[in-house]
Amino acid sequence: LKYDFVYRIAAAFPDARFTINGGLKTVEETKEALSHVPAAMLGRAIYDNPWTLNALDHVLFEDPISDRARIIPDGGAVITCKSTKH
Fold it and tell me: What are the angstrom distances between the C-alpha of 81 and each of 33, 44, 84, 85?
C-alpha cells in the first residue's frame, strides 16, 4: 500500500474525501493515517483483535478505557456455532 501517495493526492484535492483502506494494524498507524485523511477502514486488525476498537476510542475520542471484566462478566462467553451443511 502506498499511503504517502494517497496523502499527497488528498493534500492536492482538499475538497475530496479520501479513506485509507487496508493494512492498518495498530492504533498508532491508524492515528497517523487520520492525520492525513478523514477516514480509515480497519478490517483484519479488528477481526484479529476486537479490543483494538476500545483503544481507538480512547486515543481518538478520549473515551475511558473499558474494563474487560466489566464488559465480559464471569471470565468470558462461549459461542456455539452449528453448521447447516451436512
Answer: 36, 21, 10, 12
For the stretch 25-68, pLDDT in tens is 999 999 999 999 999 999 888 888 888 888 898 898 888 877 76
Give the CA dihedral 47, 1, 61, 11, nearest 10 degrees.
Answer: -160
Grid coordinates belonging to 39 = 477516514
Contacts of 11 (CB under 8 A, 6+ apart): 36
Alpha helices in the chain (DSSP H): 3-12, 27-34, 44-48, 52-61, 68-71
> Residue for cell digits 475530496?
16
Phi first, then psi, for residue 6 (nearest 5°) are: -60, -40
